[in-house]
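lol forgot to send this yesterday, sorry. struct tokens for the thing we talked abt
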């Protein structure tokens, strides 16, 4: 049975890129086949959100006018007639990577980027145009993953893990990097380089790789954040990137004398000339796997002969598949993947809907680990 849903709700509306976001009272959507109405409890705000929403040249085309948003945790308010598992009241995790039901070529990030081809743009401007910076959202059934609330948030004495809602929001930063780690089959016993390891996604990748059973070498330039990893795990080493290829290669070899099985990279646009690519490639074992998830446009060069003679596999990944999202949630529910500040993760800062500008400003300033969320 549906919970009591108001006729109208509050949402953030972006009419045009570069114009101010406004809070608007909107009719609350009704469920139809293949959809879920979700009461949003917390929605992720990424560090580049201000640029995406205000700069027409950000590279993120948007289906304006629309309600922006991204990953979210919420509670099911109502479901369409074809729902078989989800029901009113359930806690869910929303994965914003929406793909076409009739075409794998149609794919976009709900609330954040409309896609790269006509099929993706058509999908983003249709039924799922509006996202999660709202009190209620109409979302695709297949993108709403149930969470075992009793296990995740229950008291330890009754078999729960004792997490708070804020603890669970650390899954937001883990969703995307997990796609790359899973695609290169990171597993127990592997030695993995995570680069750069000092931002929100990179630090999340460190925790994920450890939970997947790997030995991790976290590299980066921010010595302060790297130092915070010191007591995280005996399977974790840190290497400060100096910019000297030979010196950094030697540091990596000291950290992994037997070589490295996998290299995960999510470098930002400005890292195109960073030396850490060459240093990391220099220590890979024969048959090693490389995951590329960053946003570098040019400047990175790979040695053709090295790739061939070393039998390297290079895999590009954008976002996370539905199966991988389910696996990520299972890791958290089982307890294999610890969450929250007690697990060494960063601070969570929450902002109400009316403080959306403060939330975007805080996200833009926060480069270190942690979460910025809007709680409508």
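and heres what i got for the seq, position by position
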């Amino acid at each position: 049975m549906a919970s009591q849903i108001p006729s109208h709700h509050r949402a953030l509306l972006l009419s045009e890129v570069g114009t101010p976001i406004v809070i608007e009272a909107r009719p609350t959507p009704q469920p139809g086949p293949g959809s879920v109405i979700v009461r949003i409890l917390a929605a992720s705000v990424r560090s580049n959100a201000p640029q995406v929403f205000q700069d027409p040249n950000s590279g993120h085309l948007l289906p304006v006018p629309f309600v922006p948003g991204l990953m979210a945790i919420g509670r099911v308010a109502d479901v369409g007639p074809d729902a078989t598992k989800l029901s009113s009241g359930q806690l869910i995790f929303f994965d914003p990577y929406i793909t076409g039901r009739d075409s794998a070529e149609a794919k976009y990030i709900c609330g954040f980027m409309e896609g790269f081809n006509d099929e993706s743009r058509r999908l983003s401007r249709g039924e799922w145009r509006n996202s999660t910076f709202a009190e209620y959202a109409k979302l695709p059934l297949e993108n709403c993953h149930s969470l075992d609330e009793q296990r995740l948030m229950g008291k330890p004495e009754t078999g729960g893990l004792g997490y708070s809602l804020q603890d669970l929001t650390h899954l937001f930063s883990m969703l995307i990097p997990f796609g790359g780690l899973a695609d290169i089959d990171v597993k127990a016993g592997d030695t993995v380089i995570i680069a750069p390891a000092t931002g929100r996604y990179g630090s999340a990748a460190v925790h994920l790789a450890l939970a997947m059973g790997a030995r991790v070498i976290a590299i980066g330039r921010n010595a302060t954040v790297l130092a915070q990893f010191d007591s995280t795990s005996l399977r974790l080493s840190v290497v400060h990137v100096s910019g000297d290829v030979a010196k950094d290669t030697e540091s990596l070899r000291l950290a992994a004398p037997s070589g490295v099985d996998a290299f995960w990279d999510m470098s930002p646009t400005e890292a195109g000339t960073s030396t850490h690519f060459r240093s990391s490639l220099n220590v890979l074992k024969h048959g090693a796997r490389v995951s590329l998830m960053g946003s570098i446009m040019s400047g990175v060069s790979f040695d053709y002969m090295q790739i061939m003679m070393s039998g390297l596999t290079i895999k590009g990944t954008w976002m996370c598949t539905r199966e991988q999202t389910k696996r990520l949630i299972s890791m958290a529910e089982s307890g294999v993947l610890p969450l929250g500040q007690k697990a060494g993760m960063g601070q969570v800062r929450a902002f109400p809907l009316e403080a959306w500008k403060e939330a975007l400003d805080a996200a833009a300033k926060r480069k270190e680990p942690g979460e910025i969320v809007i709680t409508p």
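The CA atoms of residues 10 and 25 lie 5 Å apart. anyway ping me if u want another try
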